[in-house]
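Example (one chain per record):
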Amino acid sequence: MSRNAAKSSTSSAPDKPAISTKQHSSANWANVMRFVATVIRCERGVACVDLDSVLLHHNPEDGISRLGHPLPLGRKLTHLLKHKGFRVIVLTSRPARYQHGRIHQHLESLGFMVDHVTNVKPAADAYFDDKAFRIPKNWR
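Predicted structure:
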């Protein structure tokens, strides 16, 4: 067996370090800040923000019955949106039986500036979600 063949068969590590497709929190926050600073409040004046993993920490192993601890950048996001004149609607996949009114009260008690909690996706000018993938309008 040649020396190069032996090296390639025993080495599974790539020559270059793997590039992460995830941005660090500070880079994500900088992108959010730029977007909020330039977003134009359209006729709806609504921003839709996801509950789990955006406003509150979420561990999938906890299921949907437990509300996680507040995420400081999520709180800051709601304040920025309110100061830009948006109505902030929190979207959750939790069914209504989890009492969206109580979730709303809980968020307000933690200092979040929100107007409503729902599990029905509202028409909005902007959506903030940890699982979203940005598709350019009309795929352009």
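Caption: The chain has a mean pLDDT of 81.
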